[in-house]
Amino acid sequence: MSDSAAERTDTVVIGGGVVGTCIAGFLAEAGMAVTVLDAGHAAGSTSNAGSLHVQMQSRFMRLYPDRVPGLEAQLPLYPLAVRFWAELGTRLGLDFELKLTGGLMVAETPEQLAFLETKAAREREIGLDVEILGSEAVRQMAPYLGPAIIGAELCRNEGKLNPLAANRGLAGWTRGLGVLWRRGVHVTDIVADGDGYVVHSAIGPLHCRQVIIAAAWDSGRLATPFGLAIPSIAEPLNIAITEPAQPLIGHLVQHADRMITLKQLAAGQIVIGGGWPARAAEGSAAPGLELDSLVASATLGLHVVPALGLLRIIRCWAGNNTVVDGRGVLGRVATSPGLAIAIPGDAGYTLGPLAARMVADDILGRVPIADIEAFRPERFNVALPAQAAPTRAART
Amino acid sequence: MFIDWDGQALPARPGESLLATLTAAGITTLRHDGQGAAQGAWCGMGACQACLVNVDGMPNRRACMVKVAAGMTAAPATERAKLHKMASAPPRRAADLPERRPDVLVIGAGPAGLSAALVARRAGLNVLLVDERGSAGGQYYKQPDIAGMPIDAQATEGAALIARVQAAGVEILSETTVWGAFAGLEFAASRGGAAFRIRPRAVVVATGAQETAWPVPGWTLPGVMSTGAAQGLLRTAGRIPPGRIVIAGNGPLNLQLAAELLAAGADVAALVEAAPAPGLGRVGTVARMAAAAPGLVRRGIAYRARLRRAGVPTLWATQVTSIAAGLEIETDGGERLAADMLCLGYGLVPETALPRALGAMPGLSTNTMPPGVFIAGDCTTIGGAHVAAAAGTLAGAAAARYLGLAADPGEAQARMQRAAAFQAALWRLYAPARPLLGHITPTTIICRCEGVTAEDIAAAQAAGAYSHAAIKQATRLGMGRCQGRGCVPLLARLSPESVPVGLAPRAPVRPVTIAELAG
């Protein structure tokens, strides 16, 4: 198919996860004609299980110590992001089953508690509402915790939602605004073309005025031709879910020194995740499961909440978390007018709608809802070859 | 011996399943699900998770798999499990699990698994044969759970095969559920409430099949169970449901169940068969079958004679189209039948969760499996017990050859061809008069675990769910305890245009308690 016969649209969003969905919605609300190209088979990330994170995750600090400054720079966004989720649901009349029950990061040893105290002090400086609970206080607040737990950091504005309900509701909202969805479309590359872009995929070239790359770990690849070296990598993670239980665990539970995220959904199921690896898969196949991740996360869950013993795990899945440098990559690419990037950063689902709003504001020339400067893609600028951004001819 | 069911003392036979005790007492409603719908047993073989009950304070046990014990207290499972404080256990890793390292792991002790284990053992290998049920034999060679129960030719044949396997030195682990298969020939299993790892050098997967759902209004009502489930209760525990029994479906298993229930003194009201009555046009087919397997043909003729003598009507070329509480059954021929128990046997679907976890795609065959993985019997294609036994021998021999040993499959190839020819003729004889589609109305349940109806699926499709994964996310279809075993084949029919990805059961392919993982 020649380019002259190619399809045309105004705005293309690459990625139909929570970020791409929200950007599409915000731009469509501003009157733009938007097409979403989603490589996956359903709106929404597969890695998220509905946790709304605010405090720094100890796992991230341990695994990526060099990226903690980036994470700290982003930390003020998390409470805003949780509030934005709640406000978005109210504004759109959508029920995300969002519950801000608070989050507890538990400690088993004095050393772990000391780590939490240092972390909490730093977080308070940045403006988070956190508090250290001793043994008595934590047991009173969370009687479900096991005897090994001697204290915890409480972060009041953490919580959880039902990602299936949220993804479904948000996708429906964009459809109501006239957003066109093309699913199962893997974008091979984006090429600058005059004062616009051509997006190539199996459905043929798609001409547009502007492109937003909201493709999570795949964003780095798509941004490379435009002089950006974004180190976005996929981190496949294991998540287990139980059958429904009577209400027991209100909080989002994490651990100061071990990888676990544990919460109970509104329907009663308990979801156990927290960063245990899954096996990376080739091509479009789903990541494979690791027995060790299931055993380790579930028995850690039992250690923290002993009442879980008789509950059955009915399913595991694996999904990809996206790691960059601890910070999101958000906003227009100055050297390529009409191109924007939207990678929310760690705990991307929590940040998703807010990050999308920031990028949409940037594109629309509005003052972003939160300061975007620290997250701009320019920090990954590399020198381009002399001919600047490649053209289609150069590509072939 | 008595057990307590929800405050009521029920007579039980030592050795039998809780489902056998309950069914014999006429109790069909075992619980109410999250949507308030009454649920009873369906598959009777541990796959569907419909028959959940609470047993001695433990939530969500499968009545079909739990053996009764003196003093047992059982009650309907609640929609949300009640949790109890337990002793805290230290966290552990997969490497901390007890480990078994046989040369060959055989999963499933039906005709295929038994045969595979035997030939691999005779080749000189150390073979571990595991099975989820209380005794080896699988669905076809079901062995009695009750001491001293009379057994028929089919069970005797099975007992002889099991004895040969044991005598050859195969280690058989019953009541052992393999619930995960991972890359690199790593398997996770549970037995007696504790998980362990199995790391064989080769594996033969022989996990059989389960009955297909029959999507008509009312198919999930208590009192409607699969033909295989009813046969299991009869053959393992000598239990028959009280009241009038209607058996409906397609194929010889339904006729066999009707005849066996009659012989056991049950009140069989009717047999509803989707195939037309055998006529003169089929004489040639029957003659070819008789030449291939005279014993089986004689058995079929005897079953039919028994129904005639008892005056049980057979409704030929007829399918069940709806079931109302009570049970009031309607057929596509306009007949109305009343029953206390309805057995449905409209075919089988292969149990493919473990091979798919190892990378096999649907429509799997042994040639496309990863190195060291062999697969045999009804979990590949439905061919019946005799085809499965021969295929098991071939798979066990292939596993031995893979490990560098000579193995003698004997006449297995010829046996398999003969059995397959017989099976093909049998299916010609039983070709349904009309396609087996059920009767799906907007409110017909498609996914039983999550209560998803046909109209829920249609609504999701209308809202843009274009793939099976998207329909799953939109409706929760396939997200329940059975992980889509019942509903995914139906979904494939309702939405053939969808991209069929991502709906294979994943570990744990059977639910596993967290305490089991902690040991």
Task: Quickly count the helices of chain B.
Answer: 14
Oligomer status? heterodimer
Output the CATH homologous superfamily of the largest domain in chain A.
FAD/NAD(P)-binding domain
Q: What share of residues of chain A is helical? A: 25-40%
Strand order of the largest sheet of chain B: 2-1-7-5-6
The proportion of strand residues of chain B reads 15-25%
CATH architecture of the largest domain in chain B: 3-Layer(bba) Sandwich
Can you tell me the CATH topology of the largest domain in chain A? FAD/NAD(P)-binding domain
CATH superfamily of the largest domain in chain B: FAD/NAD(P)-binding domain
What's the gyration radius of chain B in Å? 22 Å
Topology of helices and strands:
The complex is a heterodimer of chains A (396) and B (519).
Chain A: E1 7-8, E2 11-14, H1 18-29, E3 34-38, E4 51-52, H2 58-63, H3 68-74, H4 77-92, E5 103-107, H5 110-126, E6 130-133, H6 135-141, E7 151-155, E8 159-160, H7 163-176, E9 180-183, E10 187-193, E11 196-201, E12 206-208, E13 210-213, H8 219-223, E14 233-242, E15 252-255, E16 261-264, E17 270-273, H9 291-304, E18 312-323, E19 329-332, E20 339-343, H10 348-364, H11 392-395
Parallel strand pairs in A: 1-12, 2-3, 2-13, 3-9, 5-15, 13-20
Antiparallel strand pairs in A: 4-8, 5-7, 6-7, 10-11, 11-12, 14-17, 14-18, 15-16, 16-17, 19-20
Helix pairs in contact in A: 1-7, 1-10, 4-10
Chain B: E1 2-5, E2 8-11, H1 18-24, E3 31-32, E4 38-39, E5 52-55, E6 58-62, E7 73-76, E8 99-100, E9 104-107, H2 111-122, E10 127-130, H3 153-168, E11 171-173, E12 176-182, E13 186-191, E14 194-198, E15 202-205, E16 209-211, E17 224-226, H4 227-237, E18 244-249, H5 252-263, E19 267-273, H6 283-292, H7 294-310, E20 314-315, E21 320-324, E22 328-331, E23 336-338, E24 341-345, E25 348-350, H8 353-357, E26 373-375, H9 385-402, H10 412-429, E27 445-447, E28 452-453, H11 454-462, H12 468-475, H13 487-494, E29 512-513, H14 514-518
Parallel strand pairs in B: 1-7, 8-14, 9-10, 9-15, 10-11, 15-26, 17-24, 18-19, 18-24, 19-20
Antiparallel strand pairs in B: 1-2, 3-4, 5-6, 5-7, 12-13, 13-14, 16-25, 21-22, 22-23, 27-28
Helix pairs in contact in B: 2-3, 2-9, 4-5, 5-7, 6-7, 6-10, 9-10, 11-12
